[in-house]
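dumping this here before i forget
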Amino acid sequence: MLSLNTNTTSLMVQRNLSNATEGINKAMMQLTTGYKLNSAKDNPANYAIAKNMETKIHAWGVAQSNMSMGYDMLDVAASSAELIGTHLTRIRDLCEQACNGTYGEQSVNAIKAEVQGRVDEINRIRANTEYNDIKLFGEIGSDGSVSQKIINLQIGIDSSASSKLSIDTTLNLNGLGDIENWDITSSDTLDKIDSILNELWNYEVKIGASQNRIEYALESSDVIVTNLTSSLSTIRDADIAKASSDLIKYQILQQACATLLATANQMPAMALQLL
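structure:
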């Protein structure tokens, strides 16, 4: 129908031209950003899911950093404990040597001096072993007592028990503070030192087990981050081949609509020829 007042054909072509232009803008946005989700209006549901995944991926990154720092901290404790073990082993050797009846008083006193020197070095190591200003073995009081030191590691991304790892890094070495009163020429001393060495070895085993657990947690988090990243890519990343195809399609439609719009706008003028 030819009409002077309403050009429905022109309105239809304008609507299609607008749709083609919007399609071009959307395709160009996807090609320039690499994302098919550039704002919530693109797909509100998927946009919310993608943002939640992004938050979790960032959170796991922080958790992995926490675990790496925790592992390094325990490595410091393990290295110091190993050094203490070297001194304790030497102390045991000296005491076993002093138990032999072939040493006179002067020789025994020399052995005692070396034993005490190594005990002092052990105490120095215990007092100065720290990580980021944290006394790993606990604070040593003037009476030789050791305050308990528990390190809480955040190895997950929430407040659940599975996201936390508590490690008791306290090193007591019970009996070492009383070594001045020991009779190093008595074989009973060897049992006392063996008891301290057993405590130290158990400590090293505990620290090593905690390091293994951190390694397992790191491996698990890598799998989680990989899966989350893959899922996020599926939801958020643009299909460049499809976006390129859409761009060409909408460019052709835009050109066609622009040409046809000029023709549609002339239709009311055709009606005048009938008058």
